[in-house]
């Protein structure tokens, strides 16, 4: 079951305008949850990172359990670097809005502003939309491929009992798990060290942020935070 919500797609000044009318489809198994009172207007950059600032923000994290190297910024379009933007919304501060069409995640900050992060999204056939919330969080999580993935990719069966944390773990250093009606949806916001994937559709529906961006979002996102995923 789906509902109609008239949304004005946020338009950063460096990006081409998006369509004004988006139709929400049900999240996963046909949730009838409404997108709520979401009022989005034009979006312009308030604070963008200079190259020198970006090199600091995306620098190495040697004190992590598994040390993280600096992001190779040559592999990331600057429009996907973290920045503060104007984002008119009726949602409460802290709400996370995922815009898979434009490869962005927004954290509502209040006063019609948001922190914007560039992301990777689900590839064709794995896109979804709707309302969810953060049901749990994890640092350096164990990754367990769902049975549906193992059926599609038998090579993942070796991790059916769980892949230990580490630099090769697909979930990376931090993960926010999306829940709906008390149940894990199998979708996450996760951290990636693969800079070249930002701005692309590569996953089975999960949303990837650069590790440094994910750690920033993770630290400011408590359990039960509302998440809205727009239609791609």
TrEMBL record:
What PROSITE patterns does the database record attribute to this sequence? Answer: LD_TPASE, TAT
Identification of the protein by name? L,D-transpeptidase
Q: Which taxonomic lineage does the organism of this UniProt entry have?
A: Bacteria, Pseudomonadati, Pseudomonadota, Alphaproteobacteria, Hyphomicrobiales
Q: What keywords are assigned to this protein? A: Cell shape, Cell wall biogenesis/degradation, Glycosyltransferase, Hydrolase, Peptidoglycan synthesis, Transferase
Determine the domain of life of the protein's source.
Bacteria
* Membrane-traversing stretches: none
* Entries under PANTHER family matching the protein: L,D-TRANSPEPTIDASE (PTHR30582), L,D-TRANSPEPTIDASE ERFK_SRFK-RELATED (PTHR30582:SF24)
Signal peptide per UniProt: none
- The answer to whether the entry has keyword RNA-binding is no
Q: Which residues form a coiled coil?
A: none
Pathway of action = Cell wall biogenesis; peptidoglycan biosynthesis
